[in-house]
Design brief:
Strand order of the largest sheet: 1-2-3
Largest sheet: 3 strands, mixed
Radius of gyration: 24 Å
Number of strands: 8
């Protein structure tokens, strides 16, 4: 169905407020990053990092609540020329890194990208469509970058003072990365999107190898060539779109009958999203990022990089909805949602557990985006936002565990409640936000179950309900496994010693905690007044979700406010429960043990047996990727 856009066209060279806020959201982080990098002064780094929070937050607020959205912003011709030159320079740098590190894959993919880019530049025709497009979805991503991304940079200013080198360079890269993300979600021109897509690849490469040891460099190279595959896919999509329709702007694609568009081009665009979203078998680059300083993981998983994946699928959702491509994407992302959650159960490293759960939930976000109905898109937006908050929160706490308590593995978390009760409380709250009612991630899953129940009469969608139910169950087991180990004890808690934490660590932790707590209490009006309009704008349909006071009504189901508060009160008791639970008369005398008491512990089942099936899971995910491209893209 052809979509019509009521768009306000704004000229870049005018002095209107909206284009200023958009431009500043992109450029200001780059300026701040450059000052930090050049000054290399603690005061400058700390002050500018803190200032980014109210400034970017204000800009995002102004754009989000503007009554002029959606709007197209025209740019001077030289900007497009500069970005094309930058494209070639960036790919040249990738080629240099491939040759320097003797990586055949990086070098070959860089050469392929250079060749494809030359063809794109030669084929592309002038278009009167503006190259910047800002709508509610763009403003929503601005909010995530400001409210969730900037605190990670603040956290990094203290984290890097713990036995780390290059504090100022590191913080500068993080803040620059935020500006890159804002630019990536603002572009309408797909050639420009390619440039920003690969710039996020560059940022991840630089951050992952930051410590410059052998493992860090190898993992950075892995991330580089894997994400280059996504860049190649975008260039193939561009070539097909230019050849078949002459279009290379998102708004142009969304304004025509989808039957006029190349399904293969849309398949390649979707493939780039799956790569950037670390979906199996391309998940290893995100796991490899664990060798970098912990703020890298926090920013990759929450506010930047991987969030480009669901963003891109949301952007093209209206034109792939209901196609064979969409159905195969649902099968693929749903499989990853379940499989990654299962594999996460075998992990012992705390950050790897968080990484696998990110891969899993990214699958669910993209699945919801591809389903494309108004309620499914609302679910995707909910998952994007609350996952970003929870993962930023949990990775910050992982950094606290690493630097203050020297804990990296969950087996080292035993009796952690005795020496780090506050940090453990924050971890509890983060995990609860990922799992239980009335928190946002649960609401997102509930919306998906509510929506897919209407598809049970369609055979091609029958797997949806199984995917959502099974994946959610496995993730719940995963989070409870970690929490169970952290409070494990045989004779109760002996002594609580509250370890003082740096002020900046506490500020960021309390910031995330307060936001999650407030959003949970007011989740009904928040979803109905803030996220529903975005979903309606994307899907072009009516979203049957609204608030009755502080109660949430979805179709014919209602989540009452008293249920929200009751569930919240019960779950908050979990914070305090381990302090008061004591096990008595549970020790037993084992035979052939000289009558010595054998202590009994609460244990969590060891899922290591699943590991031997991981290679089969990866092989199946490869087959699904091929199906998406070959069958979904109509290449046969």
């Amino acid at each position: 169905m052809k979509r019509h856009f009521d768009i306000i066209i704004v000229h870049f060279k005018t002095e209107g407020s909206m284009e200023f806020y958009v431009t500043a959201s992109i450029v200001l982080p780059w300026i701040a990053a450059l000052i930090i990098y050049l000054a290399k002064n603690d005061t400058v780094t700390n002050v500018l990092s803190f200032l980014m929070l109210p400034i970017l937050g204000y800009f995002a607020w102004e754009v989000y609540f503007s009554n002029t959205l959606p709007m197209l912003i025209e740019t001077p011709k030289w900007v497009g020329s500069l970005i094309t030159i930058y494209d070639f320079g960036l790919l040249g740098y990738f080629l240099y890194q491939g040759m320097k590190n003797r990586s055949i894959l990086v070098s070959a993919l860089a050469i392929l990208q250079l060749a494809l880019l030359v063809i794109v530049v030669l084929m592309i025709q002038h278009s009167d469509t503006a190259d910047i497009y800002v709508d509610k979805l763009t403003a929503f991503m601005y909010m995530i970058v400001a409210i969730i991304g900037v605190p990670i940079a603040i956290f990094a200013t203290k984290y890097m003072e713990f036995d780390e080198k290059g504090k100022h360079s590191f913080v500068a890269i993080l803040i620059w990365f935020l500006g890159v993300m804002n630019f990536a979600v603002s572009v309408n021109n797909i050639e420009w999107f390619f440039a920003l897509f690969e710039t996020t690849t560059l940022a991840s490469f630089v951050l992952i190898r930051f410590r410059m040891d052998k493992e860090a460099v190898n993992n950075a190279i892995l991330a580089l060539w894997m994400n280059q595959i996504g860049g190649v896919a975008i260039l193939f999509a561009l070539l097909m779109l230019i050849k078949t329709s002459g279009m290379y702007h998102f708004t142009d694609l969304l304004s025509v009958d989808p039957k006029m568009l190349s399904l293969a081009a849309l398949g390649f665009l979707s493939l780039s999203a799956l790569v950037k979203g670390a979906q199996m078998p391309f998940h290893k680059w995100l796991l490899g990022a664990m060798v970098a300083p912990t703020p890298v993981s926090a920013i990759l998983h929450s506010a930047t990089m991987v969030k480009i994946a669901p963003y891109l699928l949301l952007r093209i959702s209206p034109i792939i909805k209901g196609t064979l491509l969409a159905k195969l994407l649902i099968i693929t992302t749903g499989f990853v949602f379940v499989a990654a959650a299962v594999i996460a159960l075998t992990q012992d490293n705390f950050k790897k557990i968080l990484a696998y759960s990110t891969i899993s939930l990214l699958g669910l976000m993209m699945l919801a985006a591809v389903v494309g109905t108004p309620i499914a898109i609302t679910a995707s937006l909910i998952l994007i936002l609350f996952h970003a908050f929870a993962k930023g929160f949990l990775f910050v706490e992982a950094g606290v565990l690493e630097k203050v308590f020297h804990v990296k593995y969950i087996k080292e978390m035993r009796r952690l409640i005795e020496k780090a009760p506050l940090t453990l409380m924050f971890i509890f709250f983060g995990f609860l936000n990922m799992t239980f009612v009335p928190f946002g991630t649960f609401i997102g899953k509930w919306l998906m179950i509510e929506e897919v129940s209407g598809f049970l009469s369609h055979g091609s969608y029958i797997l949806l309900i199984l995917y959502v139910g099974a994946g959610s169950a496995f993730l719940s087991v995963l989070y409870m496994k970690v929490l169970g180990i952290s409070v494990r004890k045989s004779h109760g808690i002996e002594k609580i010693k509250l370890t003082p934490l740096p002020l900046r660590f506490n500020f960021v932790s309390v910031w995330y905690y307060a936001w999650l707590f407030a959003l949970t209490i007011f989740i009904a009006p928040f979803i109905s007044t803030q996220l529903v309009p975005i979903a309606g704008e994307i899907s072009g349909g009516l979203v049957n979700i609204h608030a009755d006071g502080l109660s949430l009504i979805i179709n014919h189901s209602t989540l009452y406010f008293w249920q929200i508060m009751g569930a919240l009160a019960i779950l908050l008791l979990i914070h305090a429960l381990p302090f008061f639970v004591h096990f008595k008369n549970v020790d037993t005398a084992m035979p052939y043990n000289c009558g010595e008491a054998f202590p009994r512990h609460i244990e969590t089942y060891n899922f290591v047996c699943i590991s031997k099936y991981e290679s089969y899971i990866i092989a199946f995910s490869v087959a699904l990727f091929i199906m998406v491209l070959v069958l979904g893209g109509g290449l046969l």
